[in-house]
Amino acid sequence: MSAGGSTAAPVTDPTGLAERFADLWVAVTRAGGAVGFAPDAPETDIRELAARTLDEVRRGRLHMIALDGLAGAVFLQPGAGPVVAHRATVLRLMVAPQRQRRGLGGLLLAAAVDRARELGFDQLLLSARGGTGLPEFYRLQGWTEVGRFPRALRVGPDDVRDEHWFQLDL
Ligand SMILES: CC(C)(COP(=O)(O)OP(=O)(O)OC[C@H]1O[C@@H](n2cnc3c(N)ncnc32)[C@H](O)[C@@H]1OP(=O)(O)O)[C@@H](O)C(=O)NCCC(=O)NCCS
After folding, report:
1. First to last CA, the chain
2. Rounded CA gap, 40 and 115, in Å?
3. Does residue 103 line the site of ligand 1, with CB under 6 A?
4. Which atom of ligand 1 is nearest to the CA of 127?
5. Sheet containing 87-95: order of strands
6. What pLDDT does 138 receive?
């Protein structure tokens, strides 16, 4: 999927992407992005999870969509087990800080939705950190907020956030 000279496309083999993907995740985290870590999380922890994430892609347990040579990424995690096999969870949507707010996050998310349809899923779920602009971003992308877990995220010792849950029927 392309728009404004940018392309978001599935990555089937992530070999050779480890360093660039870890750099992206570290930069997004340091800029305050809500992708699993507090802004001051140790870099080694982020790099380790980045490597494990690509390993899951290699094993076929996660589907990856990347933007323009890894200026952004997003993942689909299929439901594990027969009762949830019809759905997937959208994880780790991120765009490089210097390229945010230009429609690229929307492009990546739309490409993830397309890929989910291609893979045969009927439903997508995701969660977003409260106290950020993210719930509004997902509402604007056409997702439905179906509830929230109060105080479910501990971003820091004195920084506790709600987790907002969103759903999209395909
Ligand atoms: C979330 C993210 C992927 C969105 O990508 P993006 O390219 O910045 O978003 P788009 O340009 O497609 O859409 C932005 C629009 O969403 C809405 N929005 C509101 N608050 C926002 C926020 N904090 N971040 C992004 N969009 C926000 C606005 O309408 C905004 O339009 P505007 O810039 O004209 O005000 C990107 O900001 C990012 O990587 N953030 C850090 C990682 C992160 O927190 N990921 C969320 C995982 S749940």
Report:
1. 17
2. 33
3. yes
4. 48
5. 2-3, 6-11, 63-67, 72-78, 87-95, 123-129, 159-169, 144-156
6. 98
Which domains, and CATH codes, for the chain?
2-169 (3.40.630.30)
Structure-token pair, residue 122: 């009927």
The tokens describing 153, both together, are: 């995220």
Question: Which residue, judged by its Cα, is nearest atom 2 of ligand 1?
Answer: 105
When pLDDT is cut at 50, 70 and 90, the band that residue 1 belongs to is: confident
Please work out whether the CB of residue 106 comes within 6 Å of at least one atom of ligand 1: yes
Give percent above pLDDT 90 in the chain. Answer: 96
Nearest to 62 by CA among 21, 2, 104: 21
The radius of gyration of the chain's CA atoms, rounded to the nearest angstrom, is 15
Atom of ligand 1 nearest to the CA of 31: 41
Kindly give the distance from the C-alpha atom of residue 108 to the centroid of ligand 1, in angstroms, as a whole number. 11
Are residues 121 and 88 in contact, defined by beta-carbon separation less than 8 angstroms? yes
What is the rounded distance in angstroms from the CA atom of residue 164 to the CA atom of residue 127? 5
Ligand 1 atom 33 nearest Cα: 101
